[in-house]
Amino acid sequence: MLRKLFLTFSALFLVSGTGHAQEVEEKAPAPASVPAEENILYLDLSTGGRVAIQLFSTLAPNHVERIKTLTRQGFYDGQIFHRVIDGFMAQTGDPTGTGMGGSDLPDLKAEFGKFPHLRGVVSMARAQGEDSANSQFFILFYPRFSLDGKYSAFGRVTSGMEYVDKIARGEPPLNPSRILQASIAADNKPPVLPGPATEQSEAPITVDDLNAPLNP
Known about the structure:
By secondary structure, the chain is an alpha+beta fold. The relative contact order is 0.21.
């Protein structure tokens, strides 16, 4: 009899425990999913259009977060491509335009992933130390596998590479190309495109101009 009562009590306990577990499971909030647009960087370039960059949030999470933070601060808006080497890459992200500047945020610890440095890959520039990346980054014109394991690649161009190819070359360029606006796709900012070149209108020639004495 006691054994029967014990088994019955145990069964009730298991049923009650199972029901409680199900209740807790039902009440537990589902993990929030990050929209795809949150990891797409737009660069509106003075070369004529918008460049879309897929950010590698799983391969270089800290670098992606830094780029997104600075982008939303407007840090990159108006910055020039200060170092552009034909057949290699275009570098930007320095507010001084000299290659010696950066943001006020601390430098980042390297995230050397396994993604190769292909054409269109976007990677962080750094000083001699591996953990010295801050705000500057470069976009590759051509593959450069010698950079693998030495620089933190955090994204790749998925559209608009033709505008990257038009970036003016030089160190620094004589007439540098620039980022008109950087934005995250999730923020839905409309593109900022370069306006048409303004032509200087010539003043009409008058009779007095024709009769004016010639300057030696």
